[in-house]
Specification:
single chain; 6-stranded antiparallel β-sheet; flat
Length: 542
């Protein structure tokens, strides 16, 4: 397909209708519940494309009708679906009004699709619900049977498959579909015109990053490091006021508090604007996170770095390391210290990044002698067994409490989700003794842009305790489990389960609730201060 094809006014609308009908049939028709997968849905798309792309409306609809009919007979059974789903509190994220549009589809195709909604069917070949060891009630969506194709050269069919597959997965299985950057139906019509005839790999890569950015979900993965290179400075970075600073350095020329002003003649401020356009993110906090992840990338083995120290700028040559060698998630200084320790004035401190089950007993014995407990969630737990949350049942609450409302896909009817209250102490196992006398001191949570997903989930649990105070800056706003989507030559993901506060408040794209906002300042970072921790210690002493 070329730009000349897209100049035909029929083409964008035909491709949009094809995408919708193809994806709807893929997730509704029982033929795609066959474990042998006798009909390859991608091949069907490639076969339909040349038939419908330049067709008039009646011809297009006839081809689509013939294709759906060719998939085989099915038995509609709406009553059975309604009875089986009746006990659940349901939430719909999809608008299927287009299936009732007889002007768009014609009467025959419209009626066929409406009946197909309630066709009797089993588990879809392309979608499976799996379980994880986090607990008996924890499920995740798997798209493992989707094909990923090598892309040695640009191909219109594969480009459109990338868009169509992603669009339909989000359309029917993303609990946060309504939170995309632009209305999701507009994303389809916009990107058909952009990706359909693109032949330049670099331009397509940037289009792809913009497309993933449309999810408005920092869980969505895109190869953003390709913007700047796949090497990086050997630095654990800190950010303040849209600027990057050295927190820890593996190069003697860079010290804590130094500001990195530019890399390879590219100012950090310009990189921040590129990230604003291309980086996957949920909010401004996750843009700050992206700056810490990608701001120090380079294509060179030895980078040219403009450093500002004590107000004076100079240019250095710094040997680089492969991207990912230094993780922004883990403060190297913290990794050298015990995850639980006492700070001044009998204040307990937990670094969530390395805290594990073996430390629970020590915390339980020490906590009664402390005036406050600080839990640093400005990282990501290396141990994913919810040991930290077990502190609540061990020391903070005597009775179970609803900590979250989870939003799960029903799978029975694509686009329909159900709400489920998640009680603390349930499903995650007995990893600590039950509390008989709640801790009387304050529990202070430290959060910032690196608090994402699991730490946000745990912060919401601790916020169910009356002793808890949350301070810091807005979190990244990406909660729930990750669902991976194989795409041609790519892999991306999205937040596949919604996690709300018990009252229904949405933390996705917003972040967890803050009691005291403290943003780090450039002056404080340059001086080597942790202003969030300092404020927490002040509150602990009150």
């Amino acid at each position: 397909m070329t730009s000349d094809d897209l100049s035909d006014p029929r083409v964008p609308g035909n491709l949009e209708t094809l995408c919708r009908v193809w994806g709807y049939a893929k997730y509704h028709h029982p033929v795609f519940c066959d474990t042998l997968c006798r009909v390859d849905v991608d091949s069907a798309l490639f076969a339909l494309l040349p038939k419908v792309v330049h067709a008039d409306r009646d011809t297009r609809n006839r081809h689509l009708l013939d294709w759906v009919r060719s998939l085989g007979a099915y038995t509609p059974n709406r009553v059975d679906y309604e009875q089986s789903l009746a006990p659940l509190e349901l939430v719909s994220t999809v608008d299927l009004a287009w299936t009732r549009d007889t002007i768009l589809l014609g009467c025959d195709l419209s009626h066929l699709l409406q009946d197909l909604r309630y066709a009797e069917r089993g588990e879809n070949y392309y979608l499976r619900m799996g379980t994880m060891e986090n607990g008996p009630g924890y499920h995740y969506l798997s798209l493992r049977n989707e094909k990923s194709y090598p892309t040695p050269q640009m191909d219109s069919g594969l480009n459109l498959l990338t868009l169509f597959r992603l669009w339909n997965v989000i359309e029917y299985y993303a609990p946060n579909r309504s939170l995309t950057l632009h209305p999701w139906e507009e994303v389809l019509s916009t990107y058909i015109r952009l990706v359909g005839a693109e032949t330049d790999p670099v331009r397509f890569s940037r289009l792809y990053m913009r497309l993933i950015r449309e999810l408005n979900d920092v869980h969505a993965v895109a190869p953003v490091e390709m913007l700047f290179g796949q090497r990086m400075l050997p630095v654990w970075p800190l950010q303040a006021e849209g600027r990057l600073f050295v927190g820890y350095s593996g190069d003697s020329a860079l010290k804590r508090g130094d500001e990195v002003v530019a890399i390879d003649e590219e100012p950090i401020s310009e990189r921040l604007e590129l990230l604003r356009d291309y980086a996957s993110r949920s909010n401004e906090a996750s843009l700050r996170q992206a700056l810490r992840y990608y701001g120090l990338c380079t294509r060179r083995d030895t980078a040219e770095v403009v450093r500002r120290r004590a107000g004076v700028c100079d240019t250095l040559r710094v040997a680089t390391v492969p991207y990912g060698s230094v993780s922004p998630l883990y403060d190297p200084a913290q990794l050298e210290q015990p995850p639980f320790r006492l700070l001044a004035d009998s204040v307990g401190y937990i670094y969530a990044g390395t805290f594990s089950r073996e430390h629970l007993a020590e915390v339980g014995q020490t906590l009664p002698r402390t005036r406050a407990l600080i839990i640093d969630l400005r990282t990501y737990p290396q141990n994913m067994d919810f040991t930290l949350t077990a502190l609540i049942s061990q020391s903070l609450r005597t009775e179970p409490v609803v900590a979250w409302q989870m939003v799960h896909p029903t799978l029975a009817l694509p686009g329909l989700f159900y709400l489920q209250e998640q009680w603390l102490f349930e499903d995650f196992g007995e990893v600590a003794a039950r509390c008989t006398e709640p801790y009387k001191g304050r529990v202070i949570l430290l959060v910032d842009e690196m608090t994402q997903s699991n730490p946000e989930f745990q912060a919401m649990a601790f916020q169910s305790c009356p002793q808890t105070l949350t301070i810091g800056s807005p979190t990244s706003g990406a909660n729930g489990s990750i669902v991976w989507i194989p795409l041609p030559g790519q892999m991306t993901s999205f937040s596949g389960i919604g996690a709300l506060y018990p009252d229904g408040t949405q933390p996705q794209t917003v972040g967890v609730r803050l009691d005291v906002e403290v943003l780090p300042t450039a002056e404080g970072v340059q001086a080597g201060r942790d202003e969030v921790l300092e404020r927490a210690l002040e509150l602990a002493r009150q």
